[in-house]
From TrEMBL:
WD repeats lie at residues 418-457, 627-667, 668-704. Residues 2-302 form the Glutamine amidotransferase type-2 domain. It holds the Pfam family Peptidase_M20. This is Glutamine amidotransferase type-2 domain-containing protein.
Amino acid sequence: MCRLMAYLGSQILLADVVTRPNRSITRQSYDARERLCHDILPGSLNGDGFGVGWYANPRAKQLQPAGCESKCIGTDETPCVFTSVTPAWNNENLIRLSAKISSSLIFAHVRAAYPGMPVSEQNCHPFSCGRYMFMHNGGVAGFKQLRRKLVASLSDQIYDEVSSFSSDSSVCFALFLNQLKCPFEKCTPNEIREHLETVINIILDAQEEAGITETSLLNFVVTDGNCVVSSRVVSNPSERPASLYYAVASNFECVDEKAGEYRISHADGQPQVGIVASEPITSKCTDWTPVPPNHVLMLVRGKGGVVDRIVAPIRMRRNSSLDMRHLQISRCLESLLSGVSLPCQMFSGIDLEGIACDDVGQDPRSALGDKTLQSYPILSRVESWSSMDQWSDSGIEKVSSPRSMELVQHVHCYNGEGPGHFGRISALVQHQDCLYTSAFDTDIKVWDLTKHKCINTLKGHTGNVRNLLIHQGNLYSSAAHIIKIWNLQTHECILNINFSSQSREIFSMICICDWIFIGCQDDQIYYLQVDSGARIEEQDTHDHPPLSCSPEHRLIRGDSMLSAQFAMLQEVAGPTFRAPVHGHDLDSGHCAAVHALTELGEYICSGGGDGLVLVWGISDMRLVCQLIGHKASVLAMVTLGPQQLASASRDNTVRVWDLELEASVRTLEGHTDSVVDLVVDRGYCVEDSFLFSASKDLTIRMWSPADWTCRRIFVLPTGHVNSLHVISLAGRCIVGGCNQGTLYQWDLSDETSAAQPLHRIQSVDDGLLASPDTSTSSSARRDGITWREMEKKLRQFVKIKSISGDLQWQDQCHKAAKFLARLLEQLGTEVKLQSNGDDNPIVFGRLGRHPDRPTIVLAGHYDVPNTDMGDSTHDLEAVDGYLHGKGVSDNKGPVIAQIFAVKRLLQLCGTAREMPVNVAFVFEGEHFHRSLGYKEAVRSNLHWFEGAEMILMSNTQWIGEDRPCLTHGMRGMINLTVQVDGPQTDLHSGVHGGSFNEPLANLVKVLGNLVDSHNMILIPGFYEDLRSSCQGRNPCREDTLLSEFEVEKYKKATGIPNTSVHTPQELLSALWCSPSLSIIEIGYGEESRKLRKATNYSIVPRVALAKINVRYVPDQKAEQLIAKFRAHVEHEFAKLRSPNRLEVTVQAVGHWWLGETESPFYKAAAKAIREEWGMEPLYVQEGSTETMTSILEQLLQAPVVQLPIGQASDSPNLPQERIRIVNLQKGCQVMTSLLQELGAQQNEQ
């Protein structure tokens, strides 16, 4: 059988992977140890030819074949290939060439042709065409019978391009090329995977149609020069597949040149090398992991040369159950690839004004200015530890620190001569006054924290020690595939657990009771139970008998523990919380190495190289949910609270997750390189807690959970921190382990570097509705209690800064959503929180599901706009009968009124079973951010609104101060941007003014032809399709209505000096019934904005833009108005004969809405208003737009009734926002009466 090998990593000589290793592909050509003896592949030497392929540094222009339509002309990215029909072990040219050629991507193949296959150079692998190389190990069963049909499916271009179809491998390569638009086309790894799967399915389908039952072995390896994608396929699952292994490590190096001994090294913990091979090419087999049968392996070069590895099941056409799994794989690859070019953000939250753009991405110490040092104190008081007091000064290096930083001292222990580590420190753990540290030097050091001295060294591991943890009075350590348990008193090894039989390396580890959970290199999470009383008497740890770990003990496969074994685990699993609603049914878990594990209550969370955070139930070992957001490998995780988790990633960010929402509630940015470790300092109280993140950018950041701002930055003089720990002895300290084997310590209690005062974290746990007082039968007494409760809850609600459209406040929006969820739960409501991506969650609720009763939907929003009004507006104040605070009128007050209206109805009826209506709730959090994701979320949850007959909203205002209103119409809205682009850069008016057409001047001329001085829109055809008058108003009430629209009163209230209308009728028509076009803002490019800070009157902007808002009315259509607007603007711009460029962009569209005032629902609302206010309501319209009104009416096929409760003077979204207490109370009563009336109408029918 053929043997193959592929290398992806740093530049290396071909000889170091092809000829020199004692288990190289050349050696395997005559000494293959894992050949299969198969019907179509007899056991024989691999001596029927060989080939090597590699990619050189791109220099020359590449040539494309005739007929190629892909626009991919550029540097030469095609591979070099050398093949021969002679045996690889006897080819001198191969030895000479491989000793002189180096590359970062190498293919090698030795061929064994089975009977009927010709031996020729055209059939030697790797095959190449365009930018692609391809190898095959195995065979296509019944190839002679299938060849004609397979070749007939090829395009003419591919048929002419491939030189031979005499072998099954060459036809497979042709089928792969046939999936591409062009052989020079650059594809993503996911697209290559999909193309490879298509080829496999084509072959298997052809065999099935032809009735071929023999087994095919399809081990393919393909590359485009950037990634390597390989498959291991056996058509008959009961047969043994051809062997295929992979190894991912930090280095592939020679340790004994004479003996040809090479090794896989994990020196710095960062995977820089990936190798795929039919057989291991090193003698240490535990470095290699077999690719699972019928899986595909992808090696992707990521940020900083890191090689990410993804393993995924191959989706056969006869198996559609993997669709969800493949969606997950696609998301992982998209995240990993997007992280390759992820822009670095320098110290988010710090004022960067004055720091040159070139500083971004450099050493952060050199980029930090004095202002930064003052804003975020950088602690430079570093102590280093040594147990050799007699060391001379020559052993201490003094490093000059930047700016105002003090002297830094540390001891170098690189050569093993000192007491410290000489390899990368990988883990820190504290027990009493001792600190245990491990490194990639096989040793575990024990440090006395009181003396800063190394007091012992624990030896026994032969591999790099990755993990340390303290559990049940013992120290657990892992290195390679070995776990050791040490007695903390005697420092003796008491138990050895060996996973060598499984050929996997342990990357992460946690302990829960007597159970050990480990995350491994092979994507799996294993668990086993350890007898805590077990003890090894022998002193030689190398001879300790191992405990075996059965392969079926895999967390991700869902195998359950015995209930008896788990009983004790449940008792001590920690605090529990409501399990999130989920619908995931994935075939398995991670598709890359598991780098991090942490316990979170009744769950275990895992982070992998695929960028995913997965949550597992401890009790049944089943996947609960997956958290998607990181754009690179997840390297560390830490528990923040019973429902919160933080994860660190190679994408330079830290994400804070809420498991109840299954979403990221905050992304912490600022690091400029991979974040490698996290630790929580829980302090002396909750308010004193901090999250620390360590990064390869030489910094440690301290984050406050109160507002998730960065409070301090600790800068290292050299190296980068790989591991962190907070110690508590006579004050708190943060300890970091460096990649150079050095430990650094900062004193957190140092008053000279004290952090800024923290704000107390506001808890929503007390934000629950109190149970109604049933001790009295007086409804007035009950209502009095309700009003006090309602004001209390509104105060707590307003306090939450749920500002949408700004990630800085995303966690506050999640907090507001959970606040509402808990209020609804106290009513007995079913509740669901749904968040789509980074959008704020939507709260769904349902109370009652009686098919014989009408379902009324209560809708609103909990977010407020970002108006920079200061923190004081989030504190509710009662002044002169009014409640003042941000969102109190729009829309937090009305939302609270809706919830308490249902509570009053429950009090009146006794129980939910006696309520005359079913009630559904939907509250969104992106109202001021274009209601992003709202329509999709409602559409996917229509079952929550089953039987909906009416939608009740309260998101408008009265038109006056004393007369209640019912709103029955709103205008639509179109937001557009008109942009004029001119020269490539901004120009100085004193130097270039008058020599060119200025974009801003062009834009002003175009804008001047949109509206005339009487507010008439000049766009041709804009007033077509208008209704003749405002619809739905009752003429008998028109005089009362018009009295609210006196022109002079309107001018005084708004401060407008003069209007373009003269009568109340004209004013009402202009505000409600006529379209309008407003120029909201005129601006210029970001570059001009920066320059104008210094010179306001000299810079001519290269870009000018205007923001336009159009309000349109029934029965106008948005798409037609947009087309007319664009045509008019382009026409006016063309008249200028300007060489500049004009672009019109549609930013948002909201549809108009009209309600039917004669419907039974409006009549019921009017009746409820009469009963509570003692007067008839005014039927009014609004000139504004409410997106969710039209969305709900369209999706639920139910009418909307807008019931405003606030006055015209409430000033929503302004600093003086308020709502009258009487309006809030009566509004709540009106809603309760309306629900009763709607139930009564149903009973009458």
